[in-house]
Amino acid sequence: MNRLTIAWRNVTRHRRRSLITGGLVAFGFVSFALAGGFMAQSFDGLRHNAIRSGLGHIQFADPRAFEKSEEKTLGFGIHNAGAAIRTIRANGAVEAVMPRLEFYGLVSAGGTSIPFAGVGVDPEAEQRGSDIPATIKKGVWIRPDARTVVIGHHLARLLNAKVGDNLTLLATTPDGTLNAIDVSVGGIAEIFIKELSERYLALPLPLAQELLTAPDTVSRISVLLKEPANEAETAASLDASLHTLGLGLGHRLWSELALFYQQVRVLYIGIFGFMGTVLVVIVFLSTINTTLMSVTERTREIGTLRALGARSGRIASGFVLEGALLGTASAIGGVVLSLVITLMLNLSELRLPPPPGMAKGIVIHVQVIPSVYLAATLTMIVTLAIASYFPARRAARAPIVESLAHV
Amino acid sequence: MTPVPLLAGRNLRKHYPMGAEPVQALRGVDIDVFPGDLLALRGPSGSGKTTLINLLGLLDRPDSGTLLLDGQDTQALSEDARADTRRDRFGFIFQTFNLIPVLTAAENVGYPMLLKPQPRHSWRAALSSIPSAKPQPPAHMQVRARELLAAVGLTGKEDTRPDLLSGGQRQRVAIARALANHPAVIFADEPTANLDSHTADAILDLLQRLNREQQVAIVVSTHDPRVVERCTRVLTLHDGAILRDAA
What we know:
The complex is a heterodimer of chains A (407) and B (247). In chain A, the strands form 3 sheets. Chain A has a 6-stranded mixed barrel with strand order 3-4-9-6-8-7, surrounded by 4 helices. A two-stranded antiparallel sheet of chain A has the order 2-10. Chain A has a two-stranded antiparallel ribbon with strand order 13-14. Chain A folds into 2 domains: 3-49 and 261-404, no CATH class; 63-248, no CATH class. Chain A has 14 helices and 14 strands. Chain A is an alpha+beta fold and 407 residues long. Helix content of chain A is 54%, strand content 20%. Chain B is 34% helix and 25% strand. In chain B, helix 3 (105-114) packs parallel to helix 6 and helix 6 packs parallel to helix 7 (197-214). At the A-B interface, helix 1, helix 11, helix 12 and helix 14 of A face helix 2 and helix 3 of B.
């Protein structure tokens, strides 16, 4: 016989009551675990999307490009870009180098002209480092040697254009003159953010440089790494290599550039933090009611134990131990329940409605995050222990004769 | 030579608030309890028997007066020190038995021993006993608990829970529990009130034998004449005062 044994027997003394309390705690645990797992999955998805949208793990550009917008085309462009690309590509940690030439212009088809946000890319590098080539729903991704472009499916709809149709691109060159080229639609990309889809136009980098009359010039160079964990270290190494070229480039990591990711992350943490707090309060208030009932029922027993020589601290700690044990048992139940529900959810491939600005819903996928499970377990144990402590402390300090006379 | 009292109460007063007028439960009682006493506190309901037992057993504090245990004033003792004193020097037997329902008879008897400071066990050792259906208390406690149950005639009932025992058997467990830590005094508040006459006689035989063989002082509050007959000293209380102290 030891204190744990006695505490466990007291927990199982009123099985139905303990089961109800334990069920509530397990429900709280499951809510924590699922919310945490869903949140982690969302963060991973957002991170992946941010990096694979062309941002890369590291981005090199004129330092001014990171601070403000260009007032004229390629105002902050990287000249002698080929040398910079070759230097970056020579680094063993680099998976893909994605030079990008970003500009705005007008695209015409038939009698319709629509503004577009153009991006000149290295088609092969994009296929390795970006998810956009995989979103082509009609036609094919651009080829380096072809005078074809890929447009967003909303832009295609606005232009009433289909694969093979001819387009005219009009843009302002760095010296302020207008230039135009004729291209054809090589592919139509399904881009889920409607505003982006209405403006998206990708073309081979040489074609973009021809349109802007800016040979060997790009806006930015995105770099995808083999080991994302080494972002900062590789960025410093590349900085040192590029410094010898005298291009005066600066760099940013993806996390510094992905503002949407950061905003969503803060929003999620705020929402789930608030929900978690509400949940803990509900569990606390519910369990304190149960423990208060249990303590009141055992008032005479408490008086007896004190008469036998148990100190009030020992009695209060006994109730805390009971709360902690119930919390532990409930958390174990919560772990099992969470794993089962997680498995069921992931197998069911349920789809959430599309978020604002997105055209397609998100498939629910919940991760199992050990740190979330551990935090939920500790939270539930501590919540129950605290919920037990206050009524027990009061009862353990009550006059013994009053406790013994309790009916 | 005059024997030294174990407990010496002087001018003990106690009142309880009850409505507008406080009830005077004890009005300046003087009492000595000597080693080996078998002392009956007799009197009608409301005479102050239970209040006096509560004060002597350090379950309550007097409003005024002094209570010496082995010559030392108990008023200055902290709550924890009073708890330790009850654990080490006193035993209690209650009218309603007051056994712990989740413990077996042997575990109920062993519980006061568990309250004594124990050598520290590792968490691993403590946790290892959780899945065990029959927890294993330290060997010496288990042996003593079984010896005490045998002494009160409950051999074979060691692993029985209180709800499966008769009233007499429960009171025997309570007596064995009161003896667990070798007390100097056992306080019994109406120990036979909830028992039939046959069982009550058996319990009184047992208390008498323990008093005689182990020299444990026993203070019994009662209004049962059969209990009074068995005691070597009888204090008669009335309206919170001692009317008579007779040997």
